[in-house]
Amino acid sequence: MTVTIKLEATLEERLRQRAASTGRSTSDVVRAALQSYLAQPEAEAPRSAYAMGEDLFGRHQGPADLAQGRKQRAADAWAARHARRGG
């Protein structure tokens, strides 16, 4: 199979230099590089924030209305603290 690729000038020059220094054709160098690349395991796709924490969601229990009434709970805690101090 014949494949055509476009290379930046600097990459093409590096390819030609590597081929010349090893006495191989540019096709041989590209073929070897491609085989080496494809022999590596595929990199995992980045996981989303949800996927990273999915096993933790719902693990801890607490009040269902945690955000509701927070000001009142803070005021109650403040009052209880000051009541213990005798103030």
UniProtKB/TrEMBL annotation:
Domain of life: Bacteria
Residue ranges of the TM segments: none
Sequence segments annotated as region (Disordered): 61-87
InterPro entries xrefs: CopG (IPR002145), Ribbon_hlx_hlx (IPR010985)
Domain Ribbon-helix-helix protein CopG: 2-40
Protein name (database record): Ribbon-helix-helix protein CopG domain-containing protein
The species this protein was found in: Pseudorhodoferax aquiterrae
